[in-house]
Amino acid sequence: MPKIELKHVTKRFGKFVAVDDLNMVIEDRSFVTLLGPSGCGKTTTLRMIAGLETPTEGEITINDRIVFSSEKGIDISADKRDVGFLFQNYALWPHMTVYKNIAFGLENLKWSKEDIKQRVEELLAMLKISEFSARYPSELSGGQQQRVAIARTLATGPKALFMDEPLSNLDAKLRMEMRTELKRLHRETDSTFVYVTHDQLEAMTLSSRVCLMKNGYMQQYAPPLEVYRKPANTFTADFVGSPNINLIKGEVTKLNPITLALPGSINLVFKPLETIGLSVGQKIILGLRPEHVAITEGPSMAEATVLSSLPSGMETIVQLRMGESYLHSVVFGDLDFDLEKQVGLSFASGKSNLFDEQSTVNLGQGLLSRA
C-alpha cells in the first residue's frame, strides 16, 4: 500500500493558478478527502496525482517512487502509477454485461479465465451485486451502476483508489447508503482512498483526514473532527458544519480577564485553553457552533429574539437576533419556539474559537462566561 506525497506542486492554466504550492502527505491506508467549493483546485489535484494532468512545478511520489518531478524531468503515465480512478459518470461499457465490465481490465492484462472468474465473483460478492452479473448497465439503478464501477476499478488491485465526486448523481437516500458502503469498502480492501467532493457532510463522515482548499491554496489538512472543532481560519469554520457556525465581530476591551465587547452592548469573558496573544482594541471574530448556543430559561449571558423555528423531530434549528448579530442555535429534542419571543442565551456549553478579524486566522479556543 502506498504513501503519496506532494511537494511544492503547482498547476497553471495560462495565467490562472489552479493549485498553488501544495504540500501534503497522504498516509498509507488513509481515506483523504479533498474538499472545497467549485474551482478551488481539488479535482486538478486528484488528476495530477493520478497522472491525468501534468503539474507545472513540483514533485509527486507514490510509495517512495517519484511519478512526477519538474526538476528531474520525470512524468510517469497514468497507466503505470498503479492507481484506480472512479469517474463521476461511472463510464461503464453499455454493450457489456456487469460481469464483462468488471472482467474487461483483467482480460487486457491476460489473466487466465479461471483467475478472472474468481476475482470477478469475489468483487460481485463484496459489492453485493452478484444477482446483477448478467445485466447490462441500462438495466441497473444509479446506485447499482456505481457499485459496478467501483468493482471494475478495484478488479486489478490498484494500490490507491481515486474518486471524483462519485455520489453526486445519486439521490439523497442512495448517497447515504453509498457513504456507508464506501466506508466499509475502505476497511475491507485496506487500500488508500483519495476522494473529491464539495459536500462537507461526505467529507466529515467518510474521511480519516480532510484537505480543505480555496482558490488553489490548502486552508487546513487535519482529521474531520479537528477541522470542525478547531478550524484554521474563518473560511474553514464557515465551510464546515450545518447549520453554519456563528461568526460575530467584536473587540478586545480587557486582557485580565480577556473581555470581548460584542454588538448590542454584550460583554463576555473569554478564558483561553492555551496561550493566546491579544491586545486591547484588537478586532476579533468570535466563532460559536450552533449546538453551543443554548436557549435558557435560567441565568443568561445575552438576550435574543426568535426569528424562525424549524423543528425536525430530533432537533430544532432556531434563528435568533442578538443585538445587531444574527445567530443559529440547534436545540435537541422535539421542541418549537414562538416567533418574536424574547429568550435568554448561554454560550457556556462548549468551546468557542477566537479569530483575528484582519488575518482571519484562528487565535485559539476558550470558554465563555458573563462579564
Task: Write a structural description.
This protein has 371 residues and is of the alpha+beta class. The protein has two domains: 4-238, 3-Layer(aba) Sandwich (Rossmann fold), CATH 3.40.50; 243-370, Nucleic acid-binding proteins (OB fold (Dihydrolipoamide Acetyltransferase, E2P), Beta Barrel). The chain is 23% helix and 38% strand. It has eight helices and 22 strands. The strands form four sheets. It has a six-stranded mixed β-sheet with strand order 7-8-9-3-10-11, sandwiched between helices. A six-stranded antiparallel β-barrel has the order 12-13-14-22-21-15. It has a five-stranded antiparallel β-sheet with strand order 2-1-4-5-6, covered by helices on one side.
Output the structural class: alpha+beta
Radius of gyration: 25 Å
Tally of extended strands? 22
Strand content: 35-45%
Low-confidence spans: none
Helical percentage: 10-25%
Our measurement of the CA-to-CA distance between the termini, rounded to an integer number of angstroms, reads 54 Å
Architecture of the largest domain, according to CATH?
3-Layer(aba) Sandwich
* Count of individual helical segments: 8
CATH superfamily annotation of the largest domain: P-loop containing nucleotide triphosphate hydrolases
Quickly count the domains.
Answer: 2
Order of helices and strands: EEEHEEEEHHHEHEHEEHHEEEEEEEEEEE
